[in-house]
Amino acid sequence: MANRRSSQARTIGIASAIWGVSIFLSRILGLVREQIIGRTLGASRQADLYFASFTLPDFLNYLLAAGALSIVFIPIFVKYLEAGDTKRGWEAFSVIANFIVVVGSLGIALMMIFARPLATLVAPGFTEAAEIDELVRLMRIILPAQFFHILGGLLSAALMAQDRHALPALAPLIYSACIILGGLVGAYYPELGAEGFAWGVLAGSILGPFALPLFGCLRTHMRWHAALSLRSADLHRYLLLSLPIMIGFSIVVVDEWIIKNQASFLAAGALAQLQYGRTLMKVPIGIFGMALGVASYPTISRLVAAGDVVEAYGVLSRAIRLMLVAILAAGVCLTIAGYEAVYLIWGMFGSRFTAADALETSRILALLTIGIGGWAAQSVISRGFYALGSTWLPTLVGTAVTFAMIPLYVVLRERFGAEGLAVASSTAILAYVFLLGWLQRRRFEKEAAARGASLSTAPGMLSGVWRLSLAAVVAIGVGLALRMGLVVILPGNGVVAILVRGAVLCLAGLGVYAAAAWALGITELREVGQKVGRALRGRRS
């Protein structure tokens, strides 16, 4: 048992490291990409149109459950791998992939044909003919990219099921690099405008998410058969598990659609500012939340398949608790040094993104960051349900939260503009995560009881979250007070002032956060400190 746990921890650790590095680099490239967008388009109506053009392609991606392909397909594929029946595994892959090819091609064709009337649903606040023409043109460029994202997601799932994470982890980097290249071409030829970025999206989807995992699967002797059987039990299972994701409108996905829809009614640049703030927040979410979720999921699935439900819950809950320690620390930095980060990325080396834009974006970022723990935790918590074969419950909960919160988005947008939308977003995701975490504990307790076991001694996923949140609030309060003095001592937006202010504020905030968390008895912080101490002692010796 001890050897198996050690092996599981090592597997998750290696996978987490691969995905952590990949997602970190991807987020850095994402910031470079957004910086180029900021320099090229600024906080303008054209930037609003570019960001809005992703709503329809993202909706198609969502309908085909592309974002959950790895979650849904890995248990199907792992079942055959564990039984030593690789042939049947690739047969299941082929039937599902071919079904996606047919349905995805039809969906893309229809959306491209009806892009104009659909554009008025995507962003009803854009009413000028030229704006609608530009939005339709951008959507028609980006829509075909979803075909390669969807198939690439299935190919990546097949590799991850075999604990081969390198190429799937590299794919987002190639994707972002192509968008950057497209943006640089667009900057060189100003008449292209946002279209340069859109063509980069299409090229990147082919070269990154599709071509790289395809190459990896071919190296593992992939057998993709030209077979399509609507009677396939594996296709039925895929559809059964995917159906709630396809037809549900979980707040995790729909939040961004609602914000884009509502922000189209605001002044030019508001949608772009919301998007820039969200992009910056996604950096730590990806590193600490997504990496742990992706890396731990195959192991959790195997434990559940083997009947070790208590151990699976332990792996899941420990991953969430450790992640929250890190993600709330990142939230402290983004809140108290948000202006410096925003101006450094978008305003420092460009003329179209002003200091006023940076100030408004940093305010939006601070309000979005209220929900940063929820955004990171949901990517891990939801995988616990999927490992148990339960995709309906998280989708139904997410859909219920969506419909309950839509009036809040509308009211706060009308009263407080973009900042109100940021508050609505944070409120919605936190409500979803706390409800989902409570339901997941109950579900694992039920599964454990059915196997004659109990979770009575297992720490909860959100154990200590209130104390950790209090530590973050204290750190933010101290940091904001320090900020008022630093702005007087180091005024202005020069490179030195921005870098020094940002570094001092972030380091001070992290120091206060760590001290407060330690004083409040956050055991995970002690565990992290002990590991760092052992690593440093090992290096000295």
TrEMBL record:
InterPro entries: Lipid_II_flippase_MurJ/MviN (IPR051050), MurJ (IPR004268)
Classification via Pfam families: MurJ
CDD domains reported for this sequence: MATE_MurJ_like (cd13123)
Transmembrane segments: 12-32, 59-81, 93-115, 141-161, 173-190, 196-218, 238-259, 279-300, 320-344, 364-381, 393-412, 418-439, 468-490, 496-521
Keywords: Cell membrane, Cell shape, Membrane, Peptidoglycan synthesis, Transmembrane, Transmembrane helix
Membrane topology: Multi-pass membrane protein
Subcellular location: Cell membrane
Task performed by this protein: Involved in peptidoglycan biosynthesis. Transports lipid-linked peptidoglycan precursors from the inner to the outer leaflet of the cytoplasmic membrane.
Family: Belongs to the MurJ/MviN family.
Name the record gives this protein: Murein biosynthesis integral membrane protein MurJ
Annotated source species: Xanthobacter oligotrophicus
Gene of this entry: murJ
